[in-house]
Specification:
about 250 residues; globular
């Protein structure tokens, strides 16, 4: 069945989704996962949860890095070449998936966590540090179970153009869920963390070699096409031939 598209659609920029285009050979290296947490407290439960998640990820064969937010300056208080800022951006670029863990503070995520995300630009030198990467979101609460933070983190993940997995974890009364050694006690909360990390690894294996194709957008291809046509028409491209107008012979 042929469907007629509006005349303003740039047919040359249209890509027809095709199952064959998703049949990429999987990379042999372990999934690379970056973990971020949102508290500077010595007994940070978001850090403890991030480290517990890291152990599970390593059991599943992932390569992991946990970013320490200590000494990361507030956004725009220092140049972007500050060592901690460079480390955060380089590790984000290295990653194929990420885990975000924040405590709930005043009904939302902490400033410590948000500052880390704010240092990751949507685009830097034509490279998007987070686009197409998978994301798992988790939170810890001092009181009853809440989903304010994981909901806010999902919004952030969308703005950062990440593939946020369906599952998530919210650990209530986190102060009683860890032992004196900082390890998470057996509980349904722990089981959910295993669920989330398992799902993250699965989605990362599915997405990582296909992220460029999955995040390739018509609007951006159309913009590139328009730019090339303008360059050719102006003679900016050596040897370029101006495109023939539609309907010309």
């Amino acid at each position: 069945m042929t469907v007629s598209l509006p005349e303003h659609i740039a047919l040359e920029a249209i890509d027809h989704p095709d199952h064959a285009k998703l049949q990429q050979q999987g990379s042999p290296h372990p999934p690379r996962i970056l973990l971020l947490y949102g508290s500077l407290r010595p007994q940070s439960y978001s850090r403890k949860l991030a480290l517990e998640a890291e152990r599970i990820l390593r059991h599943f064969g992932a390569e992991t890095r946990v970013f320490d937010p200590h000494d990361l300056p507030m956004l725009d208080s220092v140049p972007a070449d500050h060592p901690k800022v460079r480390q955060l951006r380089e590790w984000s670029q290295w990653s194929e998936g990420q885990v975000w863990v924040s405590p709930e503070r005043h009904g939302t995520l902490t400033g410590v966590f948000k500052n880390q995300i704010d240092w990751l630009p949507l685009e830097s030198g034509g490279v998007r540090p987070t686009q197409g990467r998978t994301l798992a979101v988790m939170q810890v609460s001092g009181g009853s179970q809440s989903f304010n933070v994981v909901n806010a983190l999902r919004v952030l993940g969308r703005w950062m153009r990440m593939v946020t997995i369906p599952n998530q974890s919210s650990v209530a009364k986190a102060w009683q869920e860890f032992d004196d050694a900082g390890r998470m006690k057996p509980s349904p909360f722990y089981d959910r963390v295993v669920d989330v990390m398992e799902e993250l690894v699965k989605f990362t294996l599915l997405v990582r070699d296909r992220s460029d194709y999955l995040t390739d957008r018509y609007s951006e291809r159309k913009g590139d096409l328009t730019a090339r046509r303008l360059a050719a028409a102006s003679g900016a491209v050596q040897g370029a031939t101006p495109p023939v107008a539609s309907g010309s012979s």
